[in-house]
Amino acid sequence: xxxxxxxxxxxxxxxxxxxxxxxxxxxxxxxxxxxxxxxxxxxxxxxxxxxxxxxxxxxxxxxxxxxxxxxxxxxxxxxxxxxxxxxxxxxxxxxxxxxxxxxxxxxxxxxxxxxxxxxxxxxxxxxxxxxxxxxxxxxxxxxxxxxxxxxxxxxxxxxxxxxxxxxxxxxxxxxxxxxxxxxxxxxxxxxxxxxxxxxxxxxxxxxxxxxxxxxxxxxxxxxxxxxxxxxxxxxxxxxxxxxxxxxxxxxxxxxxxxxxxxxxxxxxxxxxxxxxxx
Length: 278
Known about the structure:
Layout: H1 13-29, E1 37-40, E2 47-49, H2 53-58, H3 77-84, E3 94-96, H4 98-103, E4 111-115, H5 119-128, E5 135-138, H6 142-149, E6 157-161, H7 170-184, E7 189-196, H8 199-212, E8 217-223, E9 235-241, H9 247-262, E10 269-276
């Protein structure tokens, strides 16, 4: 049940859409001086060595972050700035996971809450953030952690939910957890990552969000190929609830450009949609 290790997949095409969206959200939150909370339900280890055996086994970063030339994407300056802060040159030897990305934005008044259930990954995560005074790390189910933390005392913040979905019930559990959290913390930003392995599972998630009555939901998706009945992830995306007002316009321009770099077929594969209006 705890076999998934993100170290085998760090920096892949799925990380691109997830982390670009996350950077835009965090950059929006720090525009106000008031504190905010960052809640990461499935944190991983936080930082990944792309030269390590795990990353080298699949080398998925080659078709992900390896496809983006910094000079061709000036609109991603903040995202690249974060990545550079973990590397000594423009060569990307270390790729930051979502907790490390968030740490770059968290100020003294802000708080980070990181959950990771995998024992080994939790220990690595704890070591990576042991000196961060405003970040707490827990070896605990992230869904339970979210339930206990909302609403945060700051009444501002972002919740990132990105399980591996290797447990099929996670598709339903994600939507159920978001609906319950939103009832207690309706003004929070919720960023929900999903893999497209079975499109019908994602359609069901979307229908669940629409049926919930939650307003202001957008979707951003990036793919390497068309949907397929064959084994493997063909695309991944983010449902974002209460997105920053600038996010849709920026992603609608960015996704076609990124898709041209990473899609393996002749036409770019992406989605940029308003699922539910404000």
